[in-house]
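Field reference: sequence -> structure
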Amino acid sequence: MPEDRDWEAYKVPPTRTPESERITSVPNPITFIQTVFNYVIDAPVTFVREWIERQQAKNKFYYYHQKFRRVPDLSECLEGDYLCFYEAEAQWRRDRMVDQEIVEIVRERLGACKQREGPNQFQNCAKEMEQLAQVTKAYQDRYGDLGVHGNARTCLMKQKHRMMEERKAQAKASQ
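Structure field:
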């Protein structure tokens, strides 16, 4: 690339661009419209919004800590009480999601312990492994084999059948 450039071909813009000031006796209509908009529309809306934000700051509501009241179990619903059936189903789904998260948290803790301990993981993470085994067994006992379309009724029937099998096993053992 040549050292001396052709300054005439590539002109540099001037360092200061002069601003043209139009001085007229007629005011600029845009300035007038902006001022009217600011005082008529923007100022009241801003005032109301700030007042609402001050009121909300006094009474903060954390929506992500929503607590649902416990509803009766499906076994406690009366026959034909479809609203109770629906609420029990929604409660069961929330409980299932909570139990899934518990299993996931325990699994993440075990993974973090294994990562932290390295070759000594079997010795130092035995407590976490035992806790994961207990949690997954409890989850499997309650929700296992229900499949994707499991619901509160099938889960209740599964519990009932398991309890009946346990009673039969106890009766055989006591004879």
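Note: The chain has a mean pLDDT of 87.
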